[in-house]
From TrEMBL:
GO cellular component terms given for this protein: axon; lysosomal membrane; peroxisomal membrane; phagocytic vesicle membrane; presynaptic membrane; synaptic vesicle membrane
Skewed-composition ranges (Basic and acidic residues): 90-100
Regions crossing the membrane: 20-41
Family of this protein: Belongs to the synaptotagmin family.
Gene name in the database record: SYT7
Disordered: annotated segments: 53-106
Presence of keyword Phosphoprotein: yes
Record keywords: Calcium, Calmodulin-binding, Cell membrane, Cell projection, Cytoplasmic vesicle, Exocytosis, Lipoprotein, Lysosome, Membrane, Metal-binding, Palmitate, Peroxisome, Phosphoprotein, Repeat, Synapse, Transmembrane, Transmembrane helix
Protein's UniProt name: Synaptotagmin-7
Length: 403
């Protein structure tokens, strides 16, 4: 019996049903594949977008590191820049167009600028270093040892560019010679009057000195400015261990003078005020108080008082002094002294303030000094100029006592 192929048999799906089923199956497969592809694309694009945000928003990103490398100096001394080459396409245009990047870059640049300003090599610090490195001049000397006579020979030749310590703009230099640690036995050159480039050419002999002891000594030279009426002012010093010198023959050295080791900061400070009255042609000096004075007595204290000298053209004109404060390293004086000074003589006038330690059984000790004039140290000159600029007004300032 003939059966129509298109005729549906009982329980079997028809051709139309199969065709629809096939179409549905293919559609579902395509949808699944497309969904998978979309999900994969989203993951990839999302990761790329995330990296872009990290690059822009975090200081530790690759772009942030390139900014840091731009200020790092290699051995060649030239800055290393990692900026894109002109004409080259950046890896991600979105980074370049994103607004937050410019703000982050500006912040990094700002912080970098501040760090450079605060770094030890900044111009401001170098300027301060330049101020602290005062030129104290230099000295030429020779040293050698005679083994046959067991004698150390030291020859002081000359010095150059010494600083002026006197009010006349010059100094009266001489040299003390020590073999440290022995300070009891010292030798001295002659004083060269009013000379900042003195020539001594003096020879000194340390006789009967075994070589074994010589090499254990340090040759110490101290250059001072001679003062007739007060303590000599130290100019500078040089020290050289003799075990580092070939003493078999005379060796000649040029050495820069360094600040003397008994620094001024340990002597204490003095607060005083100056008041200039141009109509009365007078200056009133008020000795207010002192603090952290150096102990000069065995008991770890001092008996301080203050001397005030008026100097004109390097000559002493008038002296005043305060009462003595017994056993006190932080005394309060509050004593005023008036000096007659015509206006036309101000430029040649100097006020010397000396803090002394009173001793009953021996000579009084100098704790420290202050020189006030047009040509003293920076702090003293500032005080003097402030006094002139503010007539009839007391101008107070702390000063470090100097040796």
């Amino acid at each position: 019996m003939y059966r129509d192929p298109e005729a549906a048999s009982p329980g079997a799906p028809t051709r139309d049903v199969l065709l629809v089923s096939a179409i549905i199956t293919v559609s579902l497969s395509v949808t699944v594949v497309l969904c998978g592809l979309c999900h994969w694309c989203q993951r990839k694009l999302g990761k790329r977008y995330k990296n872009s945000l990290e690059t822009v928003g975090t200081p530790d990103s690759g772009r942030g590191r390139s900014e840091k490398k731009a200020i790092k100096l290699p051995a060649g001394g030239k800055p290393v820049s990692t900026a894109p080459v002109p004409g080259q396409t950046p890896h991600d245009e979105s980074d370049r167009r994103t607004e937050p990047h410019s703000s982050v870059s500006d912040l990094v640049n700002s912080l970098t600028s501040e760090m450079l300003m605060l770094s030890p090599g900044s111009e401001e610090d170098e300027a301060h270093e330049g101020c602290s490195r005062e030129n104290l001049g230099r000295i030429q000397f020779s040293v050698g040892y005679n083994f046959q006579e067991s004698t150390l020979t030291v020859k002081i030749m000359k010095a150059q560019e010494l600083p002026a310590k006197d009010f006349s703009g010059t100094s009266d230099p001489f040299v003390k010679i020590y073999l440290l640690p022995d300070k009891k036995h010292k030798l001295e050159t002659k004083v060269k009057r009013k000379n900042l480039n003195p020539h001594w050419n003096e020879t000194f002999l340390f006789e009967g000195f075994p070589y074994e002891k010589v090499v254990q000594r340090v040759l110490y030279l101290q250059v001072l400015d001679y003062d007739r009426f007060s303590r000599n002012d130290p100019i500078g010093e040089v020290s050289i261990p003799l075990n580092k010198v070939d003493l078999t023959q005379m060796q000649t050295f040029w050495k820069d003078l360094k600040p003397c080791s008994d620094g001024s900061g340990s002597r204490g400070e003095l607060l005083l005020s100056l008041c200039y009255n141009p109509s009365a042609n007078s200056i009133i000096v008020n000795i207010i108080k002192a603090r952290n004075l150096k102990a000069m007595d065995i008991g770890g204290t001092s008996d301080p008082y203050v001397k005030v000298w008026l100097m004109y053209k390097d000559k002493r004109v008038e002296k005043k002094k305060t009462v003595t404060m017994k056993r006190n390293l932080n005394p309060i004086f509050n004593e005023s002294f008036a000096f007659d000074i015509p206006t036309e003589k101000l430029r040649e006038t100097t006020i010397i303030i000396t803090v002394m330690d009173k001793d009953r059984l021996s000579r009084n000790d100098v704790i420290g000094k202050i020189y006030l004039s047009w040509k003293s140290g920076p702090g003293e000159v500032k005080h003097w100029k402030d006094m002139i600029a503010r007539p009839r007004q007391p101008v107070a300032q702390w000063h470090q006592l100097k040796a």
